[in-house]
Amino acid sequence: MNVIYRIDDTICAPATSSGGAISIVRVSGPDCFRAVDKVVGMRRGDAAGAAGFSLHFGVVEGLDEVLVSIFRAPHSYTGEDMAEISCHASPYVVAELVRRLCDAGCRPAEAGEFTRRAFTAGKLDLSQAEAVADLIAADSMAAHKLAFSQLRGAYSHKLRQLRGQLTELAALLELELDFSEEDLEFANRDKLAGLSADALAECRRLSDSFRLGNAFKKGIPVAIVGAVNSGKSTLLNALLGEERAIVSDVPGTTRDTVEELLSINGVSYRLIDTAGIRETQESVERMGIERSFDKLDGASVVVIMLDGTAPQAEWEEIERVVGPRIGPEARVIRARNKTDLLDSPSPLPGVLDISALTGAGMDALKNAISADDAERLTESDGALVSNARHCKALENAASCLERFSDGLSKGLGTELLAEDLREALSELGDIFGEVTHFEITDVIFKRFCIGK
Questions:
Q1: What whole-number distance in Å separates Cα of residue 114 and Cα of residue 61?
Q2: Phi, psi of 88 (to 5 degrees)
Q3: Helix 388-409 vs helix 189-208: crossing angle, to nearest 10
């Protein structure tokens, strides 16, 4: 059952996680300052009479000395009267402060409720609100840059402009429907065709960017594949600089995929150590090999481990088996391992010489894995879609615009054209939350942490 959120009451919650020296308790709503004054004794004046964007020293009787930040509506994060109380990070102090605020007329905030109020007040659109959660969760420079650019409207501004122009044309089509008996044409068909083509191209460009944007956000998947005992697990440990995968001379030790994150030049890579590929009748090992193939399908980078001590035929067999399972857009790196066991090995074209055991060649391999990813992120100016909901809405809008353009070229009636345009506008509006169903916003904000 959906919860009906009230926006006429006052909420409070810790806005910081435990573990630091200072915690912040956030209060927002119409009775914000009155509640703060009931709990905090200011050295000078009170919260109700304080100016916005001001700091005040105060004491919570018998509990703590605090610093109160005052934000007056509409110039606050939520668009309401808001205060932030900085206190010592004792779990007891924070919990007691929240309890006293609730006794003073506040209620505990739900997950994401502060940001939901910011959205309701028009301080953020829905895509920007989602970016707040992504910004909090960002664990790499790339993920942070994507979230921050979305928060600043890297691609939403362009889509808003297109949607605004399409809305004007849709209004003219609706006007034609009102005067259908007079057979009048208000919307210029050439202008309609040009604008819908521009909108379609932009929707396709952004939806196509999701694969890269999602990889930057969650970690670019790098599959390490090869025959048994070629050194895949040793390589994973060498790249990470710690023992994360079990290494053994026993063939088939790795029965399942092992995933770990590695940051290179501010970009996260999700290293995937896969089961050694070989013919086997052992059921569990066969399942591991099948999962290896599944990981190959979705990998952006594939490192094919070639055992430097193995015969050429083994290399050719690995290439034959894994080649058809590698995606067409994946970057393939061939690495000859165990070079420390070879006497002056001759360089091979297109093959990196490494030793996962000694660490030789690791820097060159990291450079090959990262290639120009950091530059690609910079060149994109952050205008990449990293949100699956946005990608789906863009794909749906593109389908509507394709039907619209096709109908326009075939001279279909105004009523059919208007319906396709309405659907496209609705899909684009879903991204910003302008025509979004309550269920969608409910799911989005429930993913937030308490206090944000």
A1: 27
A2: -70, 150
A3: 150
User: Are the C-beta atoms of 307 and 229 separated by less than 8 Å?
Assistant: yes
* Tokens matching residue 283: 């059921």
Which amino acid, one-letter code, is at 25?
V
Residue 346 to residues 10, 242, 253, 304, 336: CA-CA distances in angstroms? 73, 30, 31, 19, 11
Cβ contact 232:274 at 8 Å: yes
Joined tokens for residue 175:
């006007």
Amino acid at 398: A
Structure tokens that stand for 443 in this block = 């799911």
Closest CA to 334 of 226, 445, 236, 449: 226
pTM: 0.78
**For the segment 353-382, what is each residue's pLDDT rounded down to a tens digit?**
999 999 999 999 999 999 888 778 777 766
Instruction: Give the Cα separation of 58 and 66 in Å (integer).
Output: 5
Summarised one tens digit per residue, pLDDT across range 98-154 is 999 999 999 999 999 999 999 999 998 888 999 998 998 898 988 998 899 888 887
Q: In this model, does residue 181 exceed pLDDT 60?
A: no
CA 69 – CA 42 distance, rounded (Å) = 12
- Please name the residue that has the structure tokens 């055992």: 307
